[in-house]
Amino acid sequence: EAKMQGRGLYCVFEPSMGEHLRDRRQFEHDIRHAISRKELRLVYQPQAQLQSNEVFGFEALLRWDHPERGAVPPAVFIPVAEECGAILKIGEWVLRTACAEAASWQQPLAISVNVSAMQLHGGNLPELVGAVLKETGLDPFRLELEITETCLIKDIGRALAALRQLKSLGVQIAMDDFGTGYSSLSNLRAFPFDKIKVDQSLIRAVDTSDEAAAVMRAVFGLARGLKLPVLAEGVETDAELTFLRQEACDAIQGYLLGRPCPISDFAQHTSGKGRTPASRRQSNHELR
Ligand code: C2E
Ligand code: MG
Ligand code: MG
Ligand code: MG
Description:
- The chain has helices at residues 2-33, 74-83, 87-103, 117-121, 125-136, 156-169, 184-190, 200-203, 210-226, 238-246, 267-270, 277-282, and strands at 40-49, 55-66, 70-72, 110-114, 143-148, 172-178, 195-198, 230-232, 251-253.
- It is α/β, with parallel strands linked by helices.
- It has an eight-stranded mixed barrel.
- α3 packs parallel to α5.
- The protein is globular, with a radius of gyration of 21 Å.
- The model is unreliable at 1-11 and 274-283 (pLDDT under 50).
- The protein binds ligand C2E and magnesium ion (3 copies).
- Residues 268-288 are annotated as: Disordered.
């Protein structure tokens, strides 16, 4: 009887698994062609210093407008692009597009670009970054590369060599999503980071939960010991902001300051001109 059930299940699942594989192959095919089909674009999210309230830079975030599926979130397509290798070309496009954009601004604001593990281990990231800086004329100090811990655990020696080469170009390196991975504490000490970006999961509930607040205070203590500035990601509420101010957090990013948007929405920051009435209406990226 069990055998029959097993068989039955097999028969039921087989076609759908075949469909799933076809779907997956189609999805990979679509990702590979997303650049040439001009389906990718970048949105930019402001980052501000907490003491001065000043927007000092933007993080570039990738968006894919698929002709049939609509907007596909990066959390869905980045892992697939990593698995099929398409992330190398996509990451190059992101770097080049973000640096060219930032080089066109009248204000020398910082630009943060996410780098995935495969790019870091692929071997030529420092060469690529050097070439893009030269090509776009962007001051290396304005470029920050965001690296997650999982990028670093695969081949520590190789990752460290690549990061040192990148540092020698003059770019900044931030640890992204701090608090979500593992082996983070030893990595923080071993790698040449300039900043810690604390994941939004650690920010959430700092104002309502003593335990969440204690974890966040421990992160600030650690960062002070290592003399690294902290940026809190995903700040959404005034209560979270108040806590972060009390703890002397250095910088924030999040919906409270501004959602990721086309760069034209932030013209008052990038053009050096005053705010336009239109931008004043649609934006809330100024702290109270
Ligand atoms: P990330 O690098 O940690 O980027 C921050 C994410 O948090 C973004 O999600 C952003 O939209 C979201 N976020 C910002 N503020 C808030 C907030 O106040 N509340 C909430 N709930 N969310 C907030 P997004 O754009 O969906 O990107 C997700 C992840 O995809 C990124 O996380 C990053 O790991 C990856 N990603 C995005 N663009 C690229 C890229 O160009 N290259 C690579 N390799 N990865 C990318
Ligand atoms: Mg990031
Ligand atoms: Mg990231
Ligand atoms: Mg992050």
